[in-house]
Design goal:
Length: 171
Amino acid sequence: MLILFNFDRQIFTEHMIYEFEPLNKEEKDVLLKAPALIAVLIAGADDSIDQHELKRAVELVNIRTFSEKQDLHPYYQEVEKTIQQDIADIIAALADTATERNPIISDELAKVNKLLLRIKAKFARDLYASWISYAHLIAQSWGGVMGINSVGLHEKQWRDLPMINEPAAAE
């Protein structure tokens, strides 16, 4: 089992994420580090990690603390507390090339699949849709000419987060 970095975060400090109650601390950390993993995956999809895309990823997390669906606000408020350090830790822990780095990140992100099944279906679907949107916005944030062709071939391969299964519809 690969451990990219060790977390010591307080999940229930200011904003309790009620949907995470069925999960233990390590499982909560997996879900909370997902945006940082997505940011590094997309920003580094074409080998070099693009600092403009990482900056945009951090900005997007901040924006989502108030602009995302209401049930996701506490989630993004927790993510925002450590996103920059999480990104730095991931980059420091992994290889410099996308060929080596991206499969490891993909495996780490795949861990969310079993966790999404254990939380409320609506929250899981909202979180999944938010992560997909987040990945797309990071991919579109830099490159191209006047926004045309801003998403490269390598980013297209990852921006739909193929390692994460779409949760079943809430019943």
